[in-house]
Amino acid sequence: MQPFYALTNELLAWIEARPRTYEETLDAWRTNCPRLAAWEEATSNLLVDTDGQTVFLTEEGEEALAQWRKRDATEARLIREIQDAVGNGSMVPASVVHGWMGSESLDVQALVHDFITAHSRQIDPPLSDAGYMQFIRDFYKRCLQENVESQYASVSYIAGMDLCNWFKALWNEDSVPREYLLDLKSMLSGLYRRGDSSLRQVIVQGTVEHRGV
Hints:
213 residues, Arc Repressor Mutant, subunit A, three-stranded antiparallel β-sheet, two-stranded parallel sheet, 69% helix, globular
């Protein structure tokens, strides 16, 4: 089953907590855009249903909520592992770091980004340049597309500026293949072409106007 937005999972947990009337649910979850999107995702994916009076979780909704709680526990464990590694300064096997990098959690990816950029000497053996750069590129791409401000991840505008600073740092490193820089530009170009007006504005303001790329 595909992962759903965090707010959709919060809706499912809210419905599970106690019986909810249809009117109560609409009043609580159709009052603003983020909550409306969660309600629409839940209904379109058949995670919730109603008999006209009460709203309840379907089997699919119960499964989605259980998977979210499992991922939430895994996310908390990975966050503790990364924070402990930063705090004690111990060496971390590259295989463990690769495991962190494979997390779907944007918060975990944000902490991994910080770890591999600021504490790379703790990784044994060192990550390959290709793997390191691909992870950073994909992380920034997610930040730009999802525009989620969480405890550790940045909103798309800040991510755009951070990406541009990273691009400039790479540009000044002769050891960085120029093909990789072209790949970053191509990624941004693709996001701009396929994105909506909001994403296009972020790309222009965050990476072009303010940083001169």
